[in-house]
Amino acid sequence: MSFRRRVDMICGDLPGAEKSDPWGGGHDAWKVGGKMFACIGSSAPGISVKTPDIETATMLIEAGVGNKAPYFHRSWINLPEKTEDGELRHRLCASYDIVRASLTKKAQAALPAREEA
After folding, report:
1. Taking the chain, what is the end-to-end CA distance rounded to the nearest angstrom?
2. Per-residue pLDDT tens for 74-113?
């Protein structure tokens, strides 16, 4: 199964998650409440996801989990395509949860409930 398909399956199961191509050219941007929580570039490998803070991103990069996410804030990391399914799911869901929690209470209430796996 392709990496994009793996990502689509995980993100597609998250309540209120929507995929778009905001810049054209084959970028897959996954958003919740209009805010991005994951992005695959049109040609660069891997997927960029949000972490809670710069320190967490730095620790994950130093531990070899991911790399610096190009074009994103330092609190984001880029997970390589070889990322194991469990780790990929964990990082995508954590990014989703971070972004969802940052939405207004009204926007959060408008989304379906998230069931923990």
Report:
1. 22
2. 999 999 999 999 999 999 999 999 999 999 999 999 998 8
User: Confidence class of residue 117 from pLDDT cuts 50, 70 and 90?
Assistant: low
pTM over 0.85: yes
Print the SS3 string covering the chain: CCHHHHHHHHHHCCCCEEEECCCCCCCEEEEECCEEEEEECCCCCCEEEECCCHHHHHHHHHCCCCEECCCCCCCEEEECCCCCHHHHHHHHHHHHHHHHHHCCHHHHHHCCCCCCC
CB-CB contact of 17 with 32 (8 Å): yes
